[in-house]
Amino acid sequence: DLGQRTAVDPMKKLSGEFPSIQASLKKRDTTLAEVLRNQQKLEKQQKLERTGQNIVKTEQMKKCYQSSKEDFLKQNRMLLMELPQFYEKRVEYFQPSLQALIRSQRS
Fold first, then answer.
1. Beta carbons of 68 and 38 less than 8 angstroms apart
2. In angstroms, rounded to a whole number, what is the distance separating the alpha carbons of residues 45 and 62?
């Protein structure tokens, strides 16, 4: 059926992209939670007395915090770039299928 091939199949294919987008957003949110957790631990550690052992722990926590923050920023940058592109391309994706459907209706 022409309607199936020109409208339904492309819609199914496009909707198949949403689970991967949702997974990326969830991963970013998880990373953000990790950043906030690491930040709280670091702030708590920095309030402790500055002994040799606490200084070492503080430096380790700073590295852990920075690493998680960089991961989050990288994921966020990627999503901020890709999601608008995905949104903009939706029209380009459907236009040929819809044109084919309209041409077939006129014939």
1. yes
2. 10
36 vs 26: CA distance, rounded Å:
15
104 in Cβ contact with 14 (< 8 Å): no
Alpha carbon distance 94, 82 (integer Å): 18
Q: What is the pTM of this model?
A: 0.76
Q: Distance (Å, rounded) from C-alpha 9 to C-alpha 5?
A: 5
User: Rg of the Cα trace of the chain?
Assistant: 24
Quick: pLDDT tens for 22-48.
Answer: 999 999 999 999 999 999 999 999 999
Dist CA 79 CA 34 (whole Å): 18
Q: What is the pLDDT of residues 1-13, one digit of tens each?
A: 777 777 778 888 8
